[in-house]
Every structure is written in structure tokens, then in C-alpha cells.
Design brief:
With about 425 residues, this protein is mainly beta. The chain has two helices and 38 strands. The chain has a domain of about 190 residues. The protein is about 5% helix and about 35% strand.
Length: about 425
């Protein structure tokens, strides 16, 4: 079948759907209980249809093969977010939920525990898949993963992942060639405790080579490996952003690891990680540490220092307006490097820069040295808001937080 014929048929399907919607109105929601055949009911949904699950345990595994249309996804959702329906699967021949269709929304479901290597939600390719408001508890595979075929417009938001026995979230293929995720949005998720057996690393959120998008407003606590890692992209127009995340207590690595650009890393707070708060790493000697901006981050009590940089290989890297607190004996400011621009960073060792770090109040001390010390630049990557979404002043305060009186929550980050 030719590409043009495929496009014509797809356009015809969309037009027929829209015409049917005008005549019949929106598709009605179907409601089922645990006694129903969940997978069969899902695959009977028409574009725009909803399947509402009452509280209870539903038998998995399930493969979604029939999706929606642009603007009319199929939706599988909980009736009650306070009593999420649980998708149960206690074997190891499949994953709990495999998504092999476009335009799919999974909302408010509960997954886990699972056996080793059994993932919660695995997306096999396509576009416009959303996983939101779900819980993944004791999953021994990856909670949410897309690493088979290329995916566009994947959204993973407001999910809770606890006690994961594998990397919690994994997007893209390792070599960046077999597949990539574009238009990725990973936001407002809460990940607490990732523990894997050696030699596995155990990431919180991992975005592989040539996969790009936004990782923002997540809280990642107690991963074995990096809380967040992006590997960068070979395409200099494929910029990612890592912003407003709180990453704490990586057991064996840094809070945020950047293996390549182009990427903007701004308004993050990294606390108490085994290595650096933020580290730039020339992963695999790929030479991709170019067009990287690290700005307005607060980095506190990370055992390897606030920011880690390689000995060379930097091109067009900016480290600006970060609040850097180092442990005793660790020099908090990065030394000059070729290809590195430093400006407006403030060293906080031995200085009370923050209101009360012990209660996670990293607001700048009133009248302290973070105020008025920022380098002011007009670059498009300069943040107009802070960690909490509050408007920045002019000049902005150094670090991730502009005002006072806000404590970082241990859980899903609230909407500003």
C-alpha cells in the first residue's frame, strides 16, 4: 500500500468519525466492575469512548490493540481516584498492560506488585498515549516504559511509583537509532525508592539518546542510581528541558545526570545525593556535551559536590545563577573549563543561604547573599518563574526558589 493511499484512508476515517460525532454526539461512557473481561471491554471501545472501572481487582494482563483518533482517544479510567481499580497479574509471561495502539489514555489505575521483569505499562509505539494519576506499587519491572518502537507525544503525569524493583521510567532506545520518543512530557510524578540488584543501575527517570521532551515538577527520592538522567540528542534542534524537579538521596549516583545536550536544566533542587547534585557526563565518549544550560538550581549537601564536570569535551555549556552548597572540603564552584561559561553562581558553604534546609525550606534567607547576585541575561532559556511556579524578580534571586515561606512537599508536587 502506498503512503499516499494510507494517508487518504486515514483522512477518510477521521472525516467519517467527525461526521458521526456531529450526528450522534459524543460516545457514551461504559461502566464495568471486576467481574467483567477487562481486556475485551477495552478493545471494544470506539474512538472517543470511555471505559469506567469501579473499585476492585481486575484480572490482567491486557494488550490494547484498538485505539482512538486525533482529538478522540479511548479512555480507560477509574470511577473513584480514592479507590483506584487494581489491575492484577501474578505471572511472568507478559506485562500488566501493553499499549499497541494510538490515542489512548490510562487514568487512575493501580498496578503491582508484579513478578521480576513484569512491567506495569509498556508502550510499543505510535503516538498520543497518556498515563496519568496511576499508582505503581511494588512493580518488579519498569512502571512505565517505551523502548520498542518510536513514540510521539507520550505524556506521563501525576503518577505515584513506590518500592520499584527496576528503573521506574524508561523512554527510548539505548542506541538512539532503533527507536526514540519525541514530544515526551514527564511531569508531576512522585517516585520513592528504586532498588535493583547489581549490576543494574536503578534510575528514577531515564530518557535515552535522541529521545526528547520535558521532565518537570517531579519528586524523586531514594533511587539507587540517578534520580533523573537524559542522554541528549544528536540533533541540535531537539532541545529538552529538565525543570522544577526535586531529587533527593540517590544511593549510588548523582541527583540529575546529563549525558548530552541540547538541554536546559533549571529551577531544580537536588539534595543529599551520593555523588553530585547535577553532573555532566560525556556518556560513552559521544561528544554530546554541547548547548547545555544549568541555571537557577539549588544544590545542597550532595556528597560529590554541587556540580560535576568532565575534564574536557564541553562546548557551549553555561552554568549560571546556581546556589551551591558543598560539604566540608569540597570546593562548590566548578573550575574554569574550555567551552564553559560561569556567571552568577553563589557558594553557600559556611553561609546561611536558606531558611531551613532540615525542613526542606530552601527559600533564600531574607537579606542573604542569594538576593541581587544573579547575572541577568536575555537568553530565551532564562526562567521567568521559580521552582514553585512563582514569578521571578528583576534581578532574579540565585537558586531555584525566588520567594520565602514555601516548603518542598514529599509527594506529588501541587499545581502552583
Amino acid at each position: 500500500m502506498t503512503t499516499s493511499r494510507t494517508c487518504r484512508e486515514r483522512l477518510l476515517a477521521v472525516l467519517l468519525f467527525l461526521l458521526g460525532s456531529l450526528v450522534a454526539g459524543p460516545a457514551a461512557a461504559a461502566e464495568i466492575g471486576p467481574e467483567a473481561d477487562l481486556c475485551a471491554e477495552i478493545n471494544l471501545l470506539a474512538p472517543g469512548g470511555e471505559l469506567v472501572l469501579r473499585p476492585g481487582e481486575y484480572q490482567g494482563p491486557c494488550t490494547i490493540r484498538t485505539g482512538g483518533l486525533p482529538g478522540a482517544p479511548i479512555v480507560i479510567r477509574a470511577q473513584d481516584l480514592d479507590r483506584r481499580p487494581q489491575i492484577v497479574y501474578d505471572r511472568a509471561r507478559s506485562n500488566v498492560m501493553d499499549v499497541k495502539a494510538d490515542h489512548v489514555v490510562l487514568r487512575g489505575l493501580r498496578f503491582g506488585p508484579t513478578l521480576r521483569g513484569v512491567d506495569g505499562v509498556r508502550v510499543y509505539g505510535g503516538r498520543d498515549v497518556t498515563v496519568e494519576d496511576c499508582e505503581f506499587i511494588g512493580v518488579s519491572g519498569i512502571a512505565v516504559v517505551a523502548n520498542h518502537n518510536s513514540v510521539r507525544d507520550l505524556v506521563v503525569r501525576r503518577n505515584v511509583i513506590r518500592d520499584s524493583r527496576a528503573t521506574a521510567m524508561y523512554f527510548g532506545c539505548h542506541d538512539g537509532a532503533a527507536c526514540a520518543v519525541s514530544g515526551l512530557v514527564v511531569e508531576r510524578n512522585y517516585i520513592h525508592t528504586v532498588r535493583v540488584d547489581d549490576p543494574e543501575v536503578g534510575y528514577g527517570i531515564q530518557v535515552k539518546l535522541n529521545s526528547t521532551g520535558a521532565v518537570r515538577d517531579n519528586v524523586v527520592v531514594d533511587a539507587k542510581g540517578p534520580g533523573i538522567m537524559l542522554y541528549g540528542a544528536r540533533d541540535l534542534t531537539a532541545r529538552s528541558v529538565v525543570e522544577r524537579n526535586f531529587v533527593m538521596a540517590s544511593a549510588r549516583s548523582s541527583g540529575i545526570v546529563i549525558g548530552g545536550g541540547p538541554v536546559v536544566v533549571r529551577n531544580n533542587v537536588a539534595l543529599g545525593n551520593a555523588e553530585a547534585g547535577i553532573v555532566l557526563q560525556d556518556y560513552g565518549g559521544r561528544g554530546l556535551l554541547r548547548d547545555v544550560v544549568v541555571t537557577h538550581n539549588t544544590l545542597y549537601d550532595n556528597r560529590g559536590g554541587p556540580i560535576g564536570l568532565p575534564a574536557g569535551g564541553l562546548r557551549g555549556v553555561t552554568v549560571m545563577n546556581n546556589a551551591l552548597h558543598g560539604l566540608t572540603g569540597l570546593f562548590p564552584l566548578p573550575p574554569p573549563h574550555p567551552g564553559l561559561r560561569l556567571a552568577g553562581n553563589v557558594a553557600c558553604a559556611g553561609v546561611a543561604c536558606f531558611v531551613d534546609p532540615l525542613t526542606f525550606d530552601f527559600s533564600p534567607t531574607p537579606g542573604g547573599r542569594l538576593h541581587g547576585a544573579a547575572a541577568v541575561r536575555g537568553e530565551p532559556w532564562a526562567p521567568g518563574d521559580d521552582f514553585f511556579g512563582a514569578r521571578r524578580g528583576l534581578p532574579p534571586t540565585v537558586g531555584a526558589i525566588e520567594g520565602t515561606g514555601r516548603i518542598i512537599p514529599m509527594g506529588l508536587k501541587p499545581v502552583p
